[in-house]
Amino acid sequence: MSFEPVAGFRFGAVSAGIRKDGRIDVALAVADQPAVVAGMFTRNVVRAAPVDIAMQRVRSGRARAVVANSGCANACTGEAGWKATLDTTRAVAESIGASEDEVLPASTGVIGAVLPAHRIIERVPELSARLSPTGYLDFAQAICTTDRWPKLAQRKLGAGATLLGIGKGAGMIHPDVGPPHATMLVFLFTDAVIDAGEASDALAASCDVTFNACSVDGDTSTNDTVLLLSSGASQRRVSRDELSAGLTEVCGELARSMVADGEGSTHVAEIRVRGLATRDGARAVARTVATSMLVKTALFGKDANWGRLLAAAGRAGVPFDPREAQILVGGIPIVRDGAPVGAEAELKANEVLARDTYVIELVLGGGPGDFAYLTSDLGHGYVDVNAGYRS
Amino acid sequence: MSFEPVAGFRFGAVSAGIRKDGRIDVALAVADQPAVVAGMFTRNVVRAAPVDIAMQRVRSGRARAVVANSGCANACTGEAGWKATLDTTRAVAESIGASEDEVLPASTGVIGAVLPAHRIIERVPELSARLSPTGYLDFAQAICTTDRWPKLAQRKLGAGATLLGIGKGAGMIHPDVGPPHATMLVFLFTDAVIDAGEASDALAASCDVTFNACSVDGDTSTNDTVLLLSSGASQRRVSRDELSAGLTEVCGELARSMVADGEGSTHVAEIRVRGLATRDGARAVARTVATSMLVKTALFGKDANWGRLLAAAGRAGVPFDPREAQILVGGIPIVRDGAPVGAEAELKANEVLARDTYVIELVLGGGPGDFAYLTSDLGHGYVDVNAGYRS
């Protein structure tokens, strides 16, 4: 993978000793001039201090910088946590000559520990000195927690403008982000000319079919944050459609990367539900199938266990006639008219399930409602990562 | 454990070769005279043939027999499955001198295979010959699938009447049964004098706080069935309160036994949520915490990971102020006013989590809404059982 700079933005990262392993853990992105900004935040009622502060600040539609750390979520930390985030963003603001309200914080890591602001503040001069147009790889690395790889995606927006997305996420991944509302962190940078309202609408629509349509473990985080910053430095105005298409592609690629990197994940399955009366119904069924522990363990076992798929679909609270149900794995029909096609078809389907990634389609009627959801499998790796995460 | 006969009922079981391992797999309970009956069935829209047939028949409020098998759920089997269940119940009816509509079927096992009715029908004469007032242990054994132990519970209903409950269930356990709506199978037998309406109301209320308040894997089955049969043979009329109390105790004991026997389960946790505005809100939060994969893996790891508890509570869609949240593990406060009490408290809580069973309380405000949910932990055993279930 190679990525290009985004005109008007510089990036950098340092180690401030927040993570125990000494890896880089504080990332900074700075816009040379105030950037247009839009944000989406977790809808969990338990929200970390940096989420509440970024939610407030993003309302202005303008920002100069994003400061993000791994190793500490600064969630459930009360007044002390709130102050730690404010102190950090103030130090960054002073260092880059911005106002405090123009610096957006984001944190990921263990819940319940107060962000050690003084460690970050001590390193802000070095962090500022390291900023460079190509520093995005360091930025992406610094926000990783249990991630096995950094997550970046890039697309051209029409001629002359570019969109770069940087994300992290492997556990507590079942984003449910809304306009001014994962620990998924995603930062999107573009040099296209867009206005804040347009950015916000396009971002909400894109999140809805990408991050809000993927799950590792069904657990929505206290810290999920998606920020889009536009410098306008390319001086190219892009259409709403171009922006939406680019955002959906970049966000889709990052969402897929998070699920592939899902804690203990060995497969990425796309659950496509079709034929229901409404899209909301299809979303509910796709989400129920994608988060079913029995479905996810069957995927780990590479077993085309259509009974579990159909049983999960049936408990989503959405009406359909099971006698009309069709199920296809990698295009191979294994259920037709609600009954199994046969052992031969299932053996072929099991071969599909041995692949890294595949599509499972549930056709549950003749209606127009469809929705696709990305999910990972549930195996021993997930248990190993999560039964001992804090120790 | 020792159990007493219930006047007016006889029980028996045989092996009909439905299970591959040759264990007893067909169970029969017969009332000497037509019994009062009430039933609760899965609300999954994908329902097995025996569920649909039992739902129809239970409406009369009268039944003579229950015939249940393990090894085959007879779900998603279309017309052939429907006919197989009808043929089976007809053979039983002829054998005991009842009408076909008085025989209630129930099945559990693999989804998608048609019940081999001929094997059961061949063994019906032997099954009828084996019926005895003390045959309930055989009955309980015959309906087990991945269960490690048979599940029975008994209570006196006032003076002179008794209630015996027989259940099975270890996986696909997240019952959601309603009045004419896992695979949990539960059969309740009493010799008390009760009427059908009373039985139905009391059963619905008891299921709501027992089976519908427990989860192993969050997956609601196509076959969940709860049947209450009353012979009246004790000639003791019990009050509605006596019946409800007895049912709730017996159903509660069976629900706890199912969760303890949950596939791969090593602990039973009772998640008590208090202080919300409504009971429905408390139920939603308790269910979300009890089915969270991150919570369940933390319980497997014996880790008092309150951040996961609070994050799960926060994504249930129920408003509360996290700054007021208290969390107690086995009575030990680990979160007060939304912040951690400290490392010492958490170490003590970790000791509680090493026990077989314990209570976790989340106090989320000062409101009257409370609800308790039983859940198991998620460890390697669960993955082992479910990644290879069909093979």
UniProtKB/TrEMBL annotation, chains A, B:
Highest taxon, organism lineage: Bacteria
Single GO cellular component term: cytoplasm
Pathway of action: Amino-acid biosynthesis; L-arginine biosynthesis; N(2)-acetyl-L-ornithine from L-glutamate: step 1/4; Amino-acid biosynthesis; L-arginine biosynthesis; L-ornithine and N-acetyl-L-glutamate from L-glutamate and N(2)-acetyl-L-ornithine (cyclic): step 1/1
Binding positions (substrate): T145, K168, T183, E263, N386, S391
Keywords linked to the UniProt accession: Acyltransferase, Amino-acid biosynthesis, Arginine biosynthesis, Autocatalytic cleavage, Cytoplasm, Multifunctional enzyme, Transferase
Chain segments annotated as transmembrane: none
The keyword Cytoplasm is assigned to this record: yes
Subcellular locations according to the entry: Cytoplasm
Listed GO MF terms: L-glutamate N-acetyltransferase activity; L-glutamate N-acetyltransferase activity, acting on acetyl-L-ornithine as donor
GO biological process terms, semicolon-separated: L-arginine biosynthetic process; ornithine biosynthetic process
UniProt cross-references to Gene3D superfamilies, sorted A to Z: ArgJ beta chain, C-terminal domain, L-amino peptidase D-ALA esterase/amidase
Catalysis performed (reactions): N(2)-acetyl-L-ornithine + L-glutamate = N-acetyl-L-glutamate + L-ornithine; L-glutamate + acetyl-CoA = N-acetyl-L-glutamate + CoA + H(+)
Role of this protein: Catalyzes two activities which are involved in the cyclic version of arginine biosynthesis: the synthesis of N-acetylglutamate from glutamate and acetyl-CoA as the acetyl donor, and of ornithine by transacetylation between N(2)-acetylornithine and glutamate.
Family membership noted in the UniProt record: Belongs to the ArgJ family.
Complex formation: Heterotetramer of two alpha and two beta chains.
Descriptive protein name: Arginine biosynthesis bifunctional protein ArgJ
Classification lineage: Bacteria, Pseudomonadati, Myxococcota, Polyangia, Polyangiales
UniProt gene name: argJ
